[in-house]
Amino acid sequence: MPSYFRYLDENGALNSIEHRNFRVSRLDALNDPFDCAPHFEGNNANERMKCEMVATAHFRNRNTDLGLICLSRTWRAPLLWGHYADKHRGIALQLNFPKNTENLLPVRYCRRRPTVKYCDIGDDSKKDIISTAFCDSFTTKSPPWRYERESRYIIPLKECWRDSAGYYYQPLPNDRLVGVILGLRCKLTAADIAIRLRDAGYKGKTIWRIKMGTRHFSFIREKLTI
């Protein structure tokens, strides 16, 4: 069963364990402005203005309907720990998903954005082309993001729980969570994590800590005992 990794700061990881859920990312809060937004191509100023209006409306509708849980296919990348786990002070949760899990899709990295031409807008015969461009925009990012080795779990917000502050959450069941990886600078101990896992009802989970490699710019992980 393939493994995926969710990088979080310490509080985010502990909250996910305690409440047995993940906070779902909203499209308008992603850190790449090109994310989930196909290019609408017009040939003149008037067409480009109309394209911008259509693109804004489509993005607003998608943001209302859908959210993401962003995962990586590796625990080894120092950049991921630095960027998404509080400068190595955070935690990565290791998750298993069955192969061909619906709506869990790998991100591809390429130079060109998914594109919709102005002449296709409003043409019923081109609906599939427009739909494909929007779907592709959820799983297409520019090459500099390749280090993330990202996969995305795309979730209808109507299937999520919403709290009083307007944030959405998706359950994290026992059979999905494999283990917990403490960052190189994380101050928590294996005992700290074991207590949190026990109190939340998780059983049989492995705890590791990241260590620096010796001869190369790489990480290893050490299994911890309680």
Number of helices: 5
Q: Report the strand count.
A: 16
> What average pLDDT do the residues reach?
93
Number of separate structural domains: 1
Helix content: 25-40%
Largest sheet: 5 strands, mixed
Spell the H/E element sequence.
Answer: EHEEEHEHEEEEHEEEEEHEE
Strand numbers in spatial order across the main sheet: 1-6-14-15-16
Shape: elongated
| Through-space gap between termini | 26 Å
Please tell me how large the radius of gyration is. 20 Å
The chain-level structural class is: alpha+beta
Proportion of residues in β-strands: 25-35%
Q: Which runs of at least 5 residues are low in confidence (pLDDT < 50)?
A: none
Give a short summary of the structure.
The protein is α+β, with helices and mostly antiparallel strands and 226 residues long.
Descriptive report:
This protein has 226 residues and is α+β, with helices and mostly antiparallel strands. The chain has one domain. It is built from 5 helices and 16 strands. The protein has helices spanning 10-19, 45-65, 78-84, 127-137, 190-200, and strands at residues 3-8, 21-23, 25-26, 39-41, 66-72, 91-96, 104-106, 108-109, 115-117, 140-141, 150-156, 161-162, 168-171, 177-182, 206-212, 219-223. The strands form 5 sheets. A 5-stranded mixed beta sheet has the order 1-6-14-15-16, with helices on both faces. It starts with a strand and ends with a strand.
